Amino acid sequence: MIIAANLKTNLTRKQTLEYVNELEDFLNKNNISQEVLVFPAASSLNAHSGKVIIGAQNAYATANGAYTGEIGQDHLDEFGIKTILIGHSERRHILGESQEELVKKFNYYKELGYKIIYCVGEPLDVREAGYEPMIEYISDQYEGIDTNYENLIIAYEPVWAIGTGLTPTLEEIEATHKDLKKKSPAPLLYGGSVKVTNANDVLELQSVDGILVGSAALYVEHFCTMCEYAQKIENKN
């Protein structure tokens, strides 16, 4: 399974280093063989060797250049980072990234062989419009994306559930994942108010290949527990 932590605009460089080191120690001591990724804030990126894979929450589709406030490939190369999060709902809905911009970014980092976690999902008004409009809305977010890219991971995140404490039912997650799996052979993660109290149930769903965790992952002990859940499920199966 794939267990990913999006730290968003949280944790300083020092705090992130402590977080990653504690997580690494836990994975080693408990023989966790799952794929574990951490996406720190840009100013907290650092080189790391071990089980934990460090990724970038965002980068511009360039090596470098006159793009104030952005980071590029050169900045990721400095730390040996080859993993990136693209299309997160907060970048779509708060920062206004268009599908065209996301496709450009996707293709740039695809050509470099990056592991890409590509996020899709729907806001509340679309969810309330009905299941078919919801699936159609999400399907539009696949437009221009190479769904057969070998280093692709897709994360389904219902936008209305992020940071609200609300989550779809397990049956709703399973149904949505089953339909989305028809669109790509890539592993499919669930994200959207995943926390230590519901992570095990979500991970046990047949169509879920892992989780993308936001605010709940800021507590490293909680994130470690989620990694342990995944390991126990794999061992059981």
Automatic annotation (TrEMBL):
Predominant localisation class: cytoplasm
GO molecular function per UniProt: triose-phosphate isomerase activity
Top-rank taxon: Bacteria
SUPFAM superfamilies: Triosephosphate isomerase (TIM)
EC number(s) given by UniProt: 5.3.1.1
Subunit and interaction comment: Homodimer.
Species per Swiss-Prot/TrEMBL record: Sulfurimonas gotlandica (strain DSM 19862 / JCM 16533 / GD1)
Protein name per UniProt: Triosephosphate isomerase
Ranges that cross the membrane: none
Coiled coil residues, start to end: none
UniProt KW keywords: Cytoplasm, Gluconeogenesis, Glycolysis, Isomerase
Reaction equations catalysed: D-glyceraldehyde 3-phosphate = dihydroxyacetone phosphate
Any single GO BP term: glycerol catabolic process
NCBIfam families tied to this protein: PRK00042.3-2
InterPro entries linked to this entry: Aldolase_TIM, TIM_sf, Triosephosphate_isomerase, Triosephosphate_isomerase_AS
PANTHER family to which the protein is assigned, alphabetical: TRIOSEPHOSPHATE ISOMERASE
Any one cellular-component term (Gene Ontology): cytosol
Protein's cellular compartments: Cytoplasm
Family to which this protein belongs: Belongs to the triosephosphate isomerase family.
Annotated metabolic or biological route of this protein: Carbohydrate degradation; glycolysis; D-glyceraldehyde 3-phosphate from glycerone phosphate: step 1/1; Carbohydrate biosynthesis; gluconeogenesis
Protein encoded by which gene: tpiA
